Amino acid sequence: MASSTLDASLVAFLSTHAPNNVAEETDAVKASQALFPEAAYTDADKQEITQWLASAAHIASSSDDAAKSAERLSSLNTHLASRTTVLGAKPSVADIALYQKLAPVVSKWSAEERTGEQGYHHIVRHVDFVQNSPLFGLKIDDKVNVDLDNVIFKIKPVDAKAEKERKKKEKEAAAAAAAGKGATPTTLTGDQGAEAKKSKKEKTKDVAQAAGEAVAGTVAGNPTEGKKGAPEGAPTQKKEKKKKEPKPQKAAPVEKPLSPALIDLRVGHILKAETHPNADSLFVSTIACGDAPGTENTSEYEGQVVRTVCSGLNGLIPLAEMQNRKIIAVCNLKPVTMRGVKSCAMVLAASPKVKEGEDAHKGPVELVNPPADSKAGDRVFFEGWEGEPEGVLNPKKKVWETIQPGFTTTDGLEVGFDVAEVPQLSGEGPEKKTGVAKLRTKAGLCSVPTLKDAVVR
Predict the structure, then answer these.
(1) DSSP 8-state symbol, 369
(2) Which of 59, 64, 400 has the alpha carbon at shortest distance from 261?
(3) Is residue 278 pLDDT above 80, yes or no?
(4) Segments of the chain assigned to CATH 2.40.50.140
(5) Average pLDDT of span 195-219
(6) Coiled-coil intervals in this record (predicted)?
(7) H-helix or E-strand containing 330?
(8) Which residues contact 405 (CB under 8 A, 6 or more apart)?
(9) Axis-axis angle for helices 93-106, 43-59 (nearest 10)
(10) Where in the chain is the domain with CATH 1.20.1050.10?
(11) pTM of the predicted model as reported, rounded to 2 decimal places
(12) What is the largest CA-CA distance in the chain?
């Protein structure tokens, strides 16, 4: 999650232009609440405010090349296409932060850049809204000059509901295509293709018309003359109702056997880490784990799909060592909210085994390192235990709690899975495995700096 503290330039801007003495607040959420007391911010809103503050700091950066700058502006423009503010409808200090950074940029844009066919229409609209709306109440003398009559290319307004439905259908179609289920109009030929393209309404109409003609023919006593109607006074025949067949019951899903492969381990890249605003023992990290855009429990940070992850490492690992580094993440635990921040993965770390009565959190602690050439999203697995992980581990089945005691480190400082520590998987027989399986990616083995025979969790 991005920083929740306002930077000095934004504080100075608020001090000069904003009402309510909001500049006395340096926390993003508190500043938003002071500016807009009638707005009720959810935990998700608060997280989004801090993320947009971080985006605002980079969106007009002079150090970026033209392509990177255009990518960021295009992403913001798309986001605002169906929203009044960055949160949707609620105002926040994030809107003002974006205005502060973008107003000098927008003021220099040509008419084509503002409202051309490839222009940033929605950014211009947002800038004009923030500087003029009584909702924000900004006292600005040198406003961006926005000529509402000078629009080169008029774009159609985005229907938020329709846009959501479109994305849902695209996602479903992509999933169906990936699974190879069913045929598409492009795979059909001749009449098949034409039939596949018929709308649901047209198909229903065709079926109803065919049924009507068949009934008419039966009533007349001659199917070929059905359309002429039945003779006057002829008895009518009621169509027999089909007996309802019992619906076949869905087969219960096949349960995968217990295995370390059920755990979704991936290489993660920590893009940013900070201390938790409400918990002294926690870090909050923004981690790229190779997720596809639109994946549940992810967001976007600097053009990358990321997860927000809370880890109890504050005081055990210096914050500086958490910045811009590769780690191993557990990605299919059920998300949990930790003191107001939703955590959507877990960072693997090693610590010495402790005896009964000793403090299990005294340290030292070392993060598990993937091979240097690994990339965010690379699959991580124990040798000999390959397989497809579960989508989300069912907390009731306690898969993680059962498997994790086998996670350890070797004398060679490699991370491994000691099957002897998991009674359900160890023992005698052809199906049972023995020894320590090493943790690896396609690029090599995972390791720790110094801790031997340690607990990894």
Answers:
(1) B
(2) 400
(3) yes
(4) 260-456
(5) 45
(6) none
(7) strand 325-330
(8) 421, 422
(9) 20
(10) 8-136
(11) 0.48
(12) 99
Q: 3-class SS at 168?
A: helix
> In the Cβ-directed half-sphere of 427, how many Cα atoms lie within 13 Å?
6
- Helix extents (H) in 244-398: none
Query: Could you give the 3-state DSSP secondary structure of residue 142?
Result: coil
C-alpha triplet 444, 445, 449: angle, nearest 5° = 130
Domain 260-456 architecture: Beta Barrel (2.40)
Tens digits of residue pLDDT in 381-432: 999 998 899 999 998 899 999 999 999 999 999 999 999 999 888 866 666 7
Backbone phi, psi, residue 268, to 5°: -120, 150
Question: Which residue is it, tokens 């913001």?
Answer: 76
DSSP state of 229: -
pLDDT at 453 over 90: yes
Backbone angles phi, psi at 439, to 5 degrees: -85, 130
Domain 8-136 classification at class level = mainly alpha
CA distance linking residue 92 with residue 34, whole number of Å: 10
Q: Which amino acid is at 296?
A: E
Task: Show Cβ contacts of residue 45 under 8 Å, excluding neighbours closer than 6 positions.
Answer: 87, 90, 92
User: Nearest-CA neighbor of 341 among 282, 383, 381?
Assistant: 282
C-alpha dist (Å) from residue 71 to 83, 105, 306, 315 = 19, 15, 17, 38
Q: Which residue has the higher pLDDT, 36 or 211?
A: 36
Q: How far apart are CA 441 and CA 374, in angstroms?
A: 7
Helix (H), strand (E) at residue 327? strand 325-330
